[in-house]
Amino acid sequence: MPSPDWQLVPDYRPRFPRGDRLGIGILGCGEIAQKAHLVAYDNYDLDVVGVWSRTAATTATVPQQFPCARRVFGTAEELLHDPEVQIVDIATRPEQRLEWLAAAVSAGKHVLAQKPLATDLAALTPVLEEADQRGVRVAVNQNGRWAPAWRLATLLVDAGVVGTVVGVTQLHDKPLPPIAGTRFDEMAHMIITDYLMHWIDITRCWLAGKQVETVQARDRRTPGQPGAAQNPWSATVQIHCCDGADALVRVVGDVRTRSPACPFWIHGTEGTIRGSVLGGSDFVELERDGTQIRYALDGEWFVDGFAGAMGELMCAIAEGREPFHSAAHNVPSLRLMLAARDSAERDGAAVSMDRLQL
Which residues, 6 or more positions from 109, have their beta carbon under 8 angstroms from its beta carbon? Predict the structure, then answer.
């Protein structure tokens, strides 16, 4: 029988520091910020000093819609230099992200930046060095790390309940979000470089401590995919570790189903974790020594994952440590994504990672 301790549910819910919470300024307050960031911050009674967007009409009604948001800034510079703004939540387009990150760091602000943080790692390095010099924390909004099922699975893996991880498998068994005609469709290999970044990142967390030997990836257009869609809708990413462990992430396309899910399996030397996220499919089950434990879950990725990402940054600032989703911790995930992109460019050829440490 498993140890009774394994039947106790680790605390996977968003956590915040005691006392006053730091003021937040949202830079780039478009659709995702209003459908997820602000909803999460409202639910958890966070203080949003203000928001800014390039288009004034986008944010005109934000204070009326979200009680947590106090004002709309006229310019990004006003937001960055407001003394009440202590954390800048960057939710701008990917091509502008590094520029705004540098500006926020130069203004002495802590940062929670949307993913992927950057695709030019050489350009990212001096920004992170300046952040370190100024004593500000830079975290990446890998909010999937706090999706209840993924968060609980991570805590179980970290506790060693499945022993040494030998394989991770993730399938995308749900419809894709709208892509054709959106700005995301303008990004080369969008499914790999943007959409799957959450899946690649959480897989990296479950393989923590291992060294990666190679990455392989392919993306292909699917039957029935509209001609107007610039990006392939099918993608497969494989990660091969030096100790023989590997991982597979698979998106088959725009799935037609009445039971959407994103199932995952984490196989270890002593047990297996099975689960799923999104579409109301959330669950986590541990199997070891012939016994199964299914954990009750509370909350969902949207929007508790967004609260978890901000809460962890606030706790790290209060406790004087690096956050779990720090930029430095996220760089290996970025390297895996960039290697997958390069492999897809070469029609699935293996890309050597020179024993990348996860």
Answer: 25, 80, 85, 86, 87, 88, 136
